[in-house]
Design brief:
Structural class: alpha/beta
Helix content: 25-40%
Strand content: 25-35%
Shape: globular
Number of helices: 9
Oligomer: single chain
Mean pLDDT: 94
Order of helices and strands: EHEHHEHEHEEHEHHEEEEEHEE
């Protein structure tokens, strides 16, 4: 057995990235109409803990549905991709991806794993654990934003890029097209994308998944206001907001918002922003688009990918697509 290789961690995020990005997002999203705040500001330490709780709730099906598909089809993914390098975008702890890494390791074809995430601490911990779990595997972690830093992915090897969790559904149509196009441009002909997507289904099941009976999702979405209060000295009265999730049948996506229940003047000193919220006015925090197989094929084809295989159950899909030559 090969010895444990020391992980390599490359930090490509600017040291002031988080602070400047939050200021820009607040100025662009909260100071204009309609009011929005990107979902990345949900995930401080408390938000990450809450989301982990969400993935274990009985109403929230995506995490385990995707895991079951990975377990069932990991060997096929390994064989079809022909990859020796696995890249994971938005990797976190790489929990589900270990199913895929196990299958690659069993086949003896995996040389390198490249997890990409904005959280340096989480990434360093995960990289060290993975290096111990897979002796002989070179772990080359990248601390970066996958919407900005695809050009920093290590060169060489035959890659499969895992983008799991339905995260692509958090991007708007134009953002998805730009992201997939940029990803295709960063890959070589023959490289693959393994994409996890939630599927369109009955609205009552979707609404239940995003409005759990314990109120964990409501606390999670509201957490973004705590983040802005803490980081930029804002004075959001968090208790004056209610959580409003709804299904948008036209765009086929869940729309997660916070509604002001009373008139509310908000001052955000760290972003030099002051604005008035009317009673009933909403802040959109996140969307979660649900997909149909033909839609997936069309969006991937437009970006330069050819679908090799799509595995699905009633809830979720895994799609393996190859970068066209």
């Amino acid at each position: 057995m090969s010895g444990v290789l020391k992980p390599v961690v490359s930090v490509v995020l600017d040291p002031g990235w988080a602070a400047s990005s939050l200021v820009n997002d607040v100025r662009r999203g909260l100071a204009t109409h309609p009011r929005t705040l990107p979902p990345r500001w949900l995930y401080d330490d408390r938000g990450s803990e809450l989301f982990d709780q969400i993935t274990r709730l009985p109403e929230y099906y995506p995490t385990e549905a995707e895991r079951a598909l990975l377990v069932a089809h990991a060997d096929e993914i390994v064989q079809l991709s022909g990859a020796d390098t696995v890249v994971e975008l938005g990797s976190g702890t790489s929990d589900k991806t270990r199913t895929l890494l196990d299958a690659f390791t069993a086949r003896g074809s995996l040389i390198r794993f490249v997890p990409v995430d904005v959280s340096e601490g989480t990434l360093r911990t995960a990289a060290a654990e993975l290096a111990q779990r897979y002796p002989g595997l070179q772990v080359e972690a990248v601390v970066g934003d996958f919407t900005l830093h695809l050009g920093h992915l290590p060169a060489g090897g035959r890659k499969v890029v895992a983008f799991l969790g339905g995260t692509i559904g958090n991007l708007y149509v134009e953002e998805r097209a730009a992201f997939l196009g940029a990803l295709a441009d960063s890959l070589q002909a023959g490289d693959c994308l393994l994409l996890g997507t939630d599927l369109v289904k009955a609205s009552d099941r979707l609404i239940a998944a995003y409005n759990d009976s314990q109120g964990v999702t409501a606390e999670f979405v509201t957490n973004c206001l705590h983040v802005v209060n803490r980081e930029l000295g804002a004075d959001f009265d968090v208790d004056a907001f209610s959580y409003v999730p709804f299904w948008d049948p036209h765009m086929e996506r869940m729309d997660l918002r916070l509604r002001a229940e009373m008139p509310h003047r908000v001052t955000i000193p760290g972003a030099d922003v002051t604005f008035d919220l009317a009673s009933g006015e909403e802040i959109r925090v996140e969307i979660s688009t649900k997909f149909r197989p033909d839609q997936l094929r069309n969006e991937l084809h437009a970006a330069g990918f050819v679908v090799e295989q799509l595995w699905s159950d009633a809830d979720f899909a895994l799609t393996l697509a190859r970068r066209a030559g």
